[in-house]
Design a protein that fits this description.
The structure holds two protein chains of two kinds. By secondary structure, chain A is an alpha+beta fold. Helix content of chain A is 28%, strand content 26%. By secondary structure, chain B is an alpha/beta fold. The chains are: A alpha+beta, B alpha/beta.
């Protein structure tokens, strides 16, 4: 890359640094930072959403906007290109814009014919004519392919139109390279379809609010958000949908965009509830020099069932109002972070520490288990997340402890019950198909014990004596009984 | 001036008085108002939890919300679903919230009370001062959702809670099937303060939880002493054969 004064002195991309220094001794050079470029391009792509919901990255230095149905908002394709150009120039980006019927044609024109001052607009269906005089380097080909084409004297795209494709493949030595030339040519001309991969999936429903005067404070943003929420909820209501999440984008006039998101446990479309979730986060939007476009998107929409409320609590068919619970969970998650509200799901496992799992609350309470896991009184009321190792004196090796030290206090055992032997589930430790085998844990003997103060513990001895596992068994406290 | 005239002028209006706390055991725990259940000493949290679950069974049916500061769950363990179901007399759906800070936990409790979506809120927090308990009391009276605070042994001082209980485990009841095994769990619950009946403060309840009949019973003073199993030779305990 070279800036205009350097280009005026005859320095252009592709020149070696030594040659450039020879031409212009006091030239400044800097290493290219591809990562930073990619990051800036992605940010710019996010900001382009204000022109079209479908934006894709095009290589390292380009963006493709699918403008079908968007251009009339800006007064036609010329108006769109002019608005885009003005925005980019104001933000200090050098650019070249081309509008064409296919991504390939637009790519070629933007890199060859278009300049910052004069965007190129090729009407739909005129690709064949419009690309005739365009250099082949606009065709997204590899350097070797371009070199070969230049050697054959094929420098204009128009020269490729009438060429014998089989002959081309023979000359290229490699079928793939020849195929690629044909593919790119066909894509540019619209003969073959080109998949469009937007860098983020467009939402099903969105509402946008352009601000005639840039907003500079949170109060204005809040008001705009309230209007957008009303509008979006009306749309969702018309479609019988609710959304599991909402994303709110505030586009700043200087090319930045700040986004906040909220999630809901079950589909919602109540404006008051959504606004309440956003209220916790709206401070994170930095108005900067002014926000000129607000966009609210409904993410992960789903059909929503609405029912009438019971007339009174005591004649309600169910005791649990899951919608109210989900609303409560949303508010708490919005403030304390996603996953703060959880439910405990019973799992079909024998080891007590694997018998249940904490899961984020997704609007659904766990089903009531059909059968109790054990007889009453055999499971502790408080269970430690990790069993705590204790030093134990037992009268006989395979009996319950007599004394043990837990949390630095010696506890004398007066009553004990057990053991309840819980073996590991060997079937979960079978070697897998890819040869990874996990070590089977040792068998545990659990005891319910009570100390002289009346405190009741659930302790276990991990392993048996002479079980061939090397070390002698160790004792742990797993939980406390009421 | 008649009452009708006063009412018409807006000088007199009927207000709904907050329902008074019942003055019988468990003094509204789990039914209405804010109650504190504290440990008598470090490590008595299991007894305090057991007391809350067993004494608060008469409350409204519905979802329980269990709010816990993360440090407490790490130190004193969590309450597994199986034990919760067993001690609270049947399946009680439960939502859990884990927070890092006590202020967040108390905020979540208040949010839940105001929403009215849950039937009972149990919060395990490091501390709750007068302001926090007063806020919770007002919210709880207005929305009819009881709140129980499970507090560590170090809590004291004035709060706005309706009652404060102090819980310690007691040696369990004699096990009729095996004298060397623990029997039904027993707790000693001391009513440290009670707003509805200040003269009852200091009263001690020796309680026994029967996990077969699912009932919480009072143990008479005689039986409440340590149940002494027949001492075995050597003064130690006789160990049962494994298996």
């Amino acid at each position: 890359m070279a800036n205009p004064p350097a280009q005026a002195a005859g320095i252009h991309a592709g020149l070696s640094l030594a040659d450039a220094r020879a031409t212009l001794p006091d030239i400044l050079s800097e290493e290219i930072d591809r990562d930073a470029d990619a990051k800036a391009l992605t940010a710019l792509a996010a900001w382009m959403v204000r022109f079209s919901p479908l934006v894709a990255l095009d290589g390292q230095d380009g963006l493709i906007l699918e403008t079908t149905g968007c251009d009339h908002l800006f007064g036609g394709e010329a108006g769109l290109a002019a608005a885009l150009s003005a925005r980019l120039a104001a933000a200090g980006y050098g650019h070249a814009i081309a509008v064409a019927g296919t991504p390939g044609a637009a790519h070629a024109l933007a890199r060859t014919e278009a300049t910052q001052a004069v965007p190129v607009i090729l009407p739909m269906g005129n690709e064949r004519m419009g690309l005739k005089e365009v250099p082949v380097r606009g065709l997204r080909l590899t350097d070797t392919a371009l070199t070969l084409l230049r050697r054959f004297g094929l420098t204009r795209i128009g020269q490729l139109y009438g060429i014998d494709r089989k002959a081309l493949a023979r000359r290229f030595h490699s079928r793939e390279a020849a195929e690629m030339v044909c593919l790119r040519l066909d894509q540019a001309l619209g003969a073959r379809a080109e998949p469009f991969a937007p860098f983020r999936v467009p939402p099903d429903h969105a509402a946008r609010l352009p601000c005639p005067e840039p907003l500079a404070d949170t109060a204005g943003v809040t008001e705009g958000l309230a209007r957008l929420t009303e509008e979006l909820c009306r749309t969702l209501s018309g479609h019988g949908l609710g959304a599991h999440g909402f994303a709110f984008h505030a586009f700043r006039s200087d090319g930045e965009v700040s986004t906040i998101r909220v999630n809901a446990a079950r589909p919602v479309r109540t404006p008051a509830h959504i606004l309440r979730l956003f209220r916790e986060k709206i401070d994170r939007i930095d108005p900067g020099f002014g926000i000129d476009l607000l966009l609210l998107e409904a993410l992960r929409t789903a059909p929503m069932e609405t029912g009438s409320r019971p007339l009174a609590g005591d004649i309600a068919p169910v005791e649990v109002d899951e919608a109210a619970l989900a609303a409560l969970a949303d508010r708490i998650n919005a403030r304390l972070g996603d996953g703060a509200v959880s439910v405990i799901q019973p799992l079909a496992h024998h080891p007590p520490d694997a018998a249940e799992a904490r899961q984020p609350f997704a609007g659904q309470l766990p089903d009531s288990p059909t059968a109790p896991v054990s007889l009453p009184g055999l499971r502790p009321l408080r269970m430690f997340n990790h069993p705590e190792r204790v030093d134990v004196i037992a009268e006989v090796p395979d009996g319950p402890p007599l004394r043990f030290v837990w949390r630095r206090v010696v506890r004398r055992v007066v009553r004990a019950d057990g053991p309840e032997r819980i073996a590991p589930e060997w079937w979960t430790f079978l070697p897998t198909a890819d040869g990874i085998s996990r070590i089977l844990p040792r068998t545990r003997d659990y005891y319910r014990i009570e100390d002289a103060d009346g405190r009741r513990y659930w302790v276990f001895r991990e392993g048996l004596y002479h079980d061939g596992r090397g070390s002698p068994p160790e004792w742990f406290v797993q939980g406390l009984f009421a | 001036m008649s009452i009708a005239t006063l009412k018409a002028r807006g000088l007199l209006r009927t207000v709904q008085a907050a329902p008074s706390q019942p003055i019988a055991f468990p003094f509204g725990l789990g039914e209405r108002g804010v109650h504190e259940v504290a440990e008598a000493a470090y490590g008595d949290r299991a007894a305090a939890t057991g007391f809350v679950l067993t004494a608060a069974q008469r409350g409204r049916k519905g979802v329980w919300l269990w709010v816990c500061q993360a440090g407490i769950a790490r130190d004193l363990g969590h309450v597994p679903e199986a034990a919760l179901r067993e001690m609270s007399g049947g399946h009680r759906p439960r939502l859990s919230i884990h927070t890092r800070h006590g202020a967040d936990a108390l905020w979540a409790v208040e949010e839940a009370v105001v929403s009215g979506a849950v039937a009972h809120v149990v919060a395990e927090v490091e501390a709750a001062d007068f302001t926090a308990t007063r806020r919770l009391t007002l919210a709880s009276e207005k929305h009819g959702v009881p709140v129980t605070l499970l507090l560590p042994y170090a809590c004291d001082g004035a709060t706005a809670a309706a009652t404060r209980w102090r819980l310690a485990p007691r040696p369990s009841a004699p096990n009729p099937h095996d004298p060397h095994a623990p029997g039904y769990p027993r707790f000693r619950a001391v009513l440290e303060r009670c707003r509805a009946a200040p003269d009852l403060a200091g009263r001690t309840y020796d309680l026994e939880w029967n996990d077969e009949t699912l009932s919480l019973g009072l143990v008479s003073g005689m039986a409440a002493g340590p149940a002494a199993p027949r001492p075995a030779a050597g003064g130690g305990i006789v160990h049962r054969k494994a298996g």
